[in-house]
Amino acid sequence: MNAASFILKGDLCDSLDRERLRTVPDGYLVCLDGLCAGAFSVLPEEYHALPVIDCSGKLILPGLTDLHVHAPQYAFRGLGMDQELMEWLAANVFPEEARYADLAYARRAYRDFTQALTRSATTRACVFATVHRPATELLMDLLEESGLVAFVGKVNMDRDCPDDLRETTDGSVAETRRWLEETAGKYKRVRPILTPRFIPSCTDPLLDELGAMAAMTGLSVQSHLSENRGEVECVRRLRPDTAFYGDAYDRHGLFGSHGRAIMAHCVLSSDEEIARIRERGVYVAHCPQSNTNLASGVAPVRRYWDEGLNLGLGSDVAGGSSLSILRAMADAVQVSKLRWRLQDDSLRPLTVPEAFWMGTAGGGSFFGRVGLFRPGYEFDAVVLDDSRLTAPRPLTVAQRLERAVYLSEDRDVVRKFVQGREVSLPS
Amino acid sequence: MNAASFILKGDLCDSLDRERLRTVPDGYLVCLDGLCAGAFSVLPEEYHALPVIDCSGKLILPGLTDLHVHAPQYAFRGLGMDQELMEWLAANVFPEEARYADLAYARRAYRDFTQALTRSATTRACVFATVHRPATELLMDLLEESGLVAFVGKVNMDRDCPDDLRETTDGSVAETRRWLEETAGKYKRVRPILTPRFIPSCTDPLLDELGAMAAMTGLSVQSHLSENRGEVECVRRLRPDTAFYGDAYDRHGLFGSHGRAIMAHCVLSSDEEIARIRERGVYVAHCPQSNTNLASGVAPVRRYWDEGLNLGLGSDVAGGSSLSILRAMADAVQVSKLRWRLQDDSLRPLTVPEAFWMGTAGGGSFFGRVGLFRPGYEFDAVVLDDSRLTAPRPLTVAQRLERAVYLSEDRDVVRKFVQGREVSLPS
Predict the structure, then answer these.
(1) Which of A82, A321, A341 sits opposite B295 (nearest CB)?
(2) Is B393 strand, coil or helix?
(3) pLDDT tens by residue, B248-277
(4) CA A382 to CA A384: how far, in whole Å?
(5) Angle of helix B397-407 versus helix B325-342 axis, rounded to 10
(6) Backbone dihedral region of A229: left (phi > 0), alpha (psi from -120 to 50 degrees) or beta?
(7) How far apart are CA A227 and CA A268, in angstroms?
(8) Quick check: helix, strand or coil at residue B230?
């Protein structure tokens, strides 16, 4: 079935540009065969025959993009947050991820994750699974059924992790190949993405093989970069052959030179690394809540912004506790204020419209023409009922958006459209 | 009617001490005439005849205390967050507070506030109103009806604010006297608290008069202290006669020398000021979200903790966007990690059990024996249905508490008891 053509009526808000919101109170958002035909305050004649979905009085936003989230970690979101990255991986992440060898467990946990993501304002996500091929394929099945659009990665790890998670190099490569074969052409909305966990858990030969796959297939890559001091020191020890952390990915062709690449965090990136990120068009997934919970610090996002890097937001569940990308926008603004106050007052804080851009158009662009209500963009839209957020006097649409960033909850999402198709929200 | 005697059955969690949680899975919390008689894993014989309120499977926590919140600012929570304190006061706070001269507006806005506070996990609060006596009395009426326990302050301001809010010194004193007379003995659960807004908006003669009232009546005092750089500089200019900001309150007897005092923020307190806070037993209301939103910084709470200061949490709505003191616990932990990472690694981050203590027993102690499930404590309890926070395997009560701190929402509060009386939750 083709995506329908219809009109969504309500209080529209997307980005006018990177710094400013565009609002269309009581406006008309036109969907033609799955693509946006524009946002109008007066409906053009040519669309008068289309059916109208009336969401008057509700906020209508572009679907949000989560550029970095770990599906298996949703099971322990909001737990074990009194540790830093390397200890937290050993104590919480690896033991949990080992459970996904059990498909029954994976089904239960991934169903929870998929339902929560579907219920949220997110329409697109880049998702880490675990090393387990069968569970990864199960996750892809569930996400496809949900109607969301996602990149999903089978994780590769052949060193420095517990025995029950560590793959052999050959095994990791073989399972990755088999995963790609088995899922090729299987889904409409879910695509594979190469996912070496991070440099500490991948040997050079494994990275070489993955780089060769990227070169052959043009697949995108997702991984972690310069997140936490302990991790950066570990990479320096492990890879004395490299100029900086990101260079280790780049040497294997996993840094945007073949397919595109998303690197989560970039809290501690050096000047050289930032230059390479820019040069290769690598996407930075800014994960403010995770970087706070794991005491990693605050990424210099204003600098990335000014240098025009590709930027989006990640929940990084379960380094971040919340799946909400609206919450991630608020977190991004908040941590930028503390960074400005405590660390470097040359980088002024982010604003709500800027964070909103990152969570919509910024991250969305990884998926193509996504994240704006512009003609030719894919029609991803989220309808928020913000009537719960009472006010004793009328607010503008921009004020309601700001308030939604700080205070909305997943339950406020009442309808959701992805590529012009309505997604069924779990109760 | 006397408060009832009954048993609350469920998964109990309070503080064992400042550092550790105490949990009683499937336990019995006994209320005798409004006081707690203890928390038991096996119900003692002597209580077998009491009626049981069965909340099995739900989390039962002590009621939370919000040590610092501005009722009139609830109207613009989550708005105008791209400014620092002094600009934000002029642009957002003062224009809104001026509206409370209109009792019809105040009724609408204060009803919203009271309902939201009632719906939250908070059972006790220290509340700023505005300069307006009639609206302040209205707020006290509404809070009394709600069943919560609160201190409420008519704000005093006789300088450095817009004409429509600025009182004359004599007028401020007269209205404060009249307010105290009119509300004397009127309420069971709501009490007045002297509330000079902060040093920049109060002249010396006004502070003298308020200090005399504190001396005569023994009333407590609430105000702001060393929140933001601009404010601290302003006080230094205005009060060259004082050794430090808090000294300005102390010279007028408003710093815990008569009644008790709560000072919100203390982000930038000097060694001398901290020593005076300790000496006078002043309560520090730590407001992490507000201090982040207004780019004030992060208070050195670990130091206050180690020095044994009286400490609690404040939402500081609308410097903080959220009324939730569970959220304030998470915020307190999170900002302490950023402070540790970015500013001063000698002050190690707070833990969840410590933040929980601050939001329950710490702040609660301002109200007497409040915030613990101990014999003789007032019976304030909150029942949280955390079943929404799914997990693929069983969690301990302590884990569920940690998760509730990071992820619960007001809607998870399903029952609430204050001084042994059940509070009716607004829908």
Answers:
(1) A341
(2) coil
(3) 999 999 999 998 999 999 999 999 999 999
(4) 6
(5) 80
(6) alpha
(7) 6
(8) helix
How many C-alpha atoms does A65 have within 13 Å on its Cβ side? 32
Contact A263, A307 (CB under 8 A): no
Nearest CA in chain B to A392: B109
Read off the tokens for A91: 């104590």
End-to-end CA gap in chain B: 25
For residue B133, pLDDT over 80 is answered with: yes
Answer whether A297 sits within 8 Å of B395, measured CB to CB.
no
**pLDDT band for position B62 (cuts 50, 70, 90):** very high
Q: Look at phi and psi of residue B279 and say left if phi exceeds 0, alpha if psi is from -120 to 50, else beta.
A: alpha
**SS in 3 state form for A406-419?**
HHCCHHHEEEEEEC
Q: In angstroms, rounded to a whole number, what is the distance separating the alpha carbons of residues B94 and B109?
A: 15
ipTM: 0.97
Interface test with A, best of B59, B81, B339 (most A CBs within 10 A): B81
- Distance CA(A27)–CA(A34), nearest Å, equals 19
B1 pLDDT more than 60: no
CB B214 within 8 A of CB B253: yes
In sign, the C-alpha dihedral spanning A272, A274, A275, A277 is: positive
Query: Residues of B with CB below 8 A from A302's CB?
Result: none
Q: Are strands B381-384 and B52-62 parallel, antiparallel or unpaired?
A: antiparallel
| CA–CA separation, B108 and B133 (whole Å) | 16
Least Cα distance to B210 among B173, B260, B255 occurs for B173
- Distance between CA atoms of B218 and B208, rounded to whole angstroms? 15
Cβ(B37)–Cβ(B375) under 8 Å? yes
| Cis check: omega of the bond before B318, within 30 degrees of 0 | yes
**pLDDT tens profile B274-328:** 999 999 999 999 999 999 999 999 999 999 999 999 999 999 999 999 999 999 9
Contacts 24+ apart (CB under 8 A), A163-171: A164/A98, A164/A101, A165/A94, A165/A97, A165/A98, A165/A130, A165/A131, A167/A131, A169/A203, A169/A205, A169/A206, A169/A209
- Residue B413, φ and ψ in degrees, nearest 5: -75, 115
Residue A163, number of CB atoms within 10 A of its CB: 6
Torsion on CA atoms B290, B296, B297, B303, rounded to nearest 10: -80
pLDDT of residue B333: 98
Q: Which residues contact B306 (CB under 8 A, 6 or more apart)?
A: none
Q: How far is B409 from chain A (nearest CA, A)?
A: 8
- Which of B76, B109, B402 lies at the smallest CB-CB distance from A78? B402
Q: How far is CA B11 from CA A276, A405, B355, in A?
A: 53, 33, 20
Report whether B410 contacts B324 (CB < 8 A): yes
Residue among B109, B292, B330 whose CB faces A392 most closely: B109
CB hemisphere CA count around A275 (13 angstroms): 5
Strand A6-15's sheet: what is its strand order?
A35-40, A21-32, A6-15, A52-62, A381-384, A413-418, A421-422
The predicted model scores a pTM of 0.98
Looking at the DSSP bridge assignments, the partners of residue B59 are: B11, B384
Identify which of B322, B341, B393 has the shortest CB distance to residue A297. B341
Q: Which residues of chain A have pLDDT under 50?
A: 1
Q: Is the peptide bond before A318 cis (omega within 30 degrees of 0)?
A: yes
pLDDT (0 to 100) of residue B83: 77
CA distance B374 to chain A (A): 27
Q: Helix B103-119 crosses helix B133-146 at what angle (to 10 degrees)?
A: 30
What gap in Å lies between CA B140 and CA B322, rounded to an integer?
21
End-to-end alpha-carbon separation of chain A, Å? 25
Cα A353 from Cα A357, distance rounded (Å): 6
